[in-house]
Design goal:
Strand order of the largest sheet: 3-2-1-4-5
Oligomer: single chain
CATH class: Alpha Beta
Radius of gyration: 16 Å
Family: Belongs to the universal stress protein A family.
CATH superfamily: HUPs
Strand content: 15-25%
CATH architecture: 3-Layer(aba) Sandwich
Organism: Kushneria indalinina DSM 14324
Shape: globular
Protein name: Nucleotide-binding universal stress UspA family protein
Distance between the termini: 33 Å
Length: 160
């Protein structure tokens, strides 16, 4: 029986679908959910910043963590059971390696399963270098459940 479940969320439809599925697993098994958001600093939009790959002048790691926690709490309030046990985790991302962050936290928390979406907000990058969910499924120590949201499914305004 699954006792600890990790759900990485990035604001995408497939991430939300993964949380919905994990909530069903939680209800069936009385599990504890661990929601994870990995902070990826946004690229600068000004000419000089875009050329150098820097972050916007007004970005700080604290702001990134606050925004990540706000995303987790907002998604949980829309989908989750207020009486259920849930923990929020916001982690920094080693550049281009979110799968390492996901797997490391899964080991640290000794989770029984990772439930995640198959297509996040960086779909084009995923096509080129391989999807995060695919990489996680190959190296995780636990069960990995990947949920796919077809392109034809309506957005309903839930993705950020």
């Amino acid at each position: 029986m699954t006792q600890n479940i990790l759900i990485p969320l990035d604001g995408s439809r497939s991430g939300r679908r993964a949380l919905e599925h994990a909530c069903l697993m939680q209800q069936a098994a009385g599990a504890t959910l661990h929601l994870l958001h990995i902070v990826e600093p946004p690229p600068a939009t000004d000419h000089m910043g875009a050329q150098t790959g820097s972050t916007p002048v007004d970005y700080t790691p604290t702001k990134g963590h606050e925004d990540g926690e706000a995303l987790l709490k907002a998604t949980w309030s829309e989908v989750g059971d207020p009486a259920a046990e849930v923990h929020f985790h916001v982690e920094d991302n080693p550049p281009g390696r979110p799968e390492k962050t996901i797997v490391a936290l899964a080991r640290e928390l000794d989770v029984d399963a990772i439930v995640m979406g198959s297509r996040g907000l960086s779909d084009m990058k995923g096509l080129v270098v391989g999807s995060v969910s695919h990489k996680v499924s190959h190296v995780a120590h636990c069960t990995v459940i990947t949920l796919h949201v077809p392109d034809a499914e309506p957005d309903n305004g839930n993705a950020h």
